[in-house]
Design brief:
The protein is built from 11 helices and 7 strands. The chain has helices spanning about 5, 10-20, 30-35, 50-70, 85-90, 105-110, 155-170, 180-185, 225-230, 235-245, 250; strands at about 75-80, 95-100, 120-125, 140-145, 170-180, 215-220, 255-260. Helix 2 (about 10-20) crosses helix 4 (about 50-70). The model has no long low-confidence stretch (mean pLDDT about 90).
Length: about 270
């Protein structure tokens, strides 16, 4: 796999790390895959601080996804850039019509650990290309997860992706995290993804930059590090993490936005 695809091992390790500690999220599948895969992470990519942060980010996505499915159980779920993530089991969505989507080489790796079913599908696709629409019916509501992937799309590619999603589905609920421009610039020098060979990412300072000409409306900004998850840490870990990853400095680098597109008029 190329350097961008290799970034999937960073959140996999983070979820495995906290799951073994029985905090933030429980993910035995992540523990299992990490032990088998044994990807040689090093430096910041394997720090406990990053593991805590990525696990909290995943937990926020889990809660949001679980809530959206409960409100609309007939909606199709698209997890774009799924990597080796086990979200479908963590949110207990075994009867949701769910698509885990990533590049063909990632899906080939994923199929070593996961099995498709009547409701669960693994789709090898480059979401920058329109062919993905041929595999998923558009005449339905959609719940879209864009976790840890927006920064690898150029601004033009990301707007194109959001526009294609908006045009294709009847209605959409979408959650995504992204760097700010400052965060993208800063990441060139001190980002764990550098450890696996990624040096170019993209960022956005305002949510409006991501909805112009896409058909989406901005709903709200979510916290990536809710207090209830920080409270699962202890002692100096809690104090240090809260200072570095949950304050204004962190928000100036990294954010999470929710968007929606309402039902088309018939």
């Amino acid at each position: 796999m190329d350097s961008v695809n290799n970034t999937l091992y960073i959140p996999l390790y983070g979820k495995s790390y906290v799951s073994e500690k029985n905090i933030i999220i429980q993910d035995k599948k992540a523990e299992e895959i990490w032990k088998i895969a044994g990807f040689p992470l090093k430096g910041k990519a394997k720090s406990k601080w990053l593991a805590y942060f990525l696990a909290m980010r995943a937990a926020v996505y889990d809660e949001w996804t679980r809530n959206k499915i409960a409100n609309n159980p007939d909606a199709v779920v698209l997890h774009i850039g799924c990597g080796l993530d086990n979200r479908i089991e963590r949110v207990a969505a075994k009867k949701a019509n769910w698509y885990d989507i990533d590049f063909p080489e990632v899906i080939a790796e994923r199929k070593k650990y996961y099995t498709e079913s009547e409701f669960y599908h693994m789709l090898p696709a480059d979401m920058r290309e329109p062919e993905w629409k041929n595999h998923i019916a558009g005449s339905q509501d959609a719940i879209i997860i864009l976790e840890g992937v927006s920064m690898y799309f150029t601004p033009e590619e990301l707007v194109g992706l959001l526009s294609s999603i908006s045009e294709h589905f009847f209605s959409v609920r979408l959650l995504m995290d992204c760097y700010t421009k400052r965060g993208a610039k800063f990441s060139r020098y001190k980002n764990p993804i550098n450890e696996v060979g990624v040096n170019v990412v993209y960022g956005y300072d305002r949510s409006q930059q991501l909805v112009n000409k896409t058909g989406f409306l901005f709903v709200k900004e979510h916290s990536l590090t809710p207090e209830k998850f920080i409270d699962e840490l202890h002692g100096l870990d809690k104090m240090f993490f809260k200072h570095l990853f949950a304050g204004k400095m962190a928000a100036s680098i990294y954010r999470m936005y929710e968007f929606e597109k309402e039902k088309r008029q018939c």
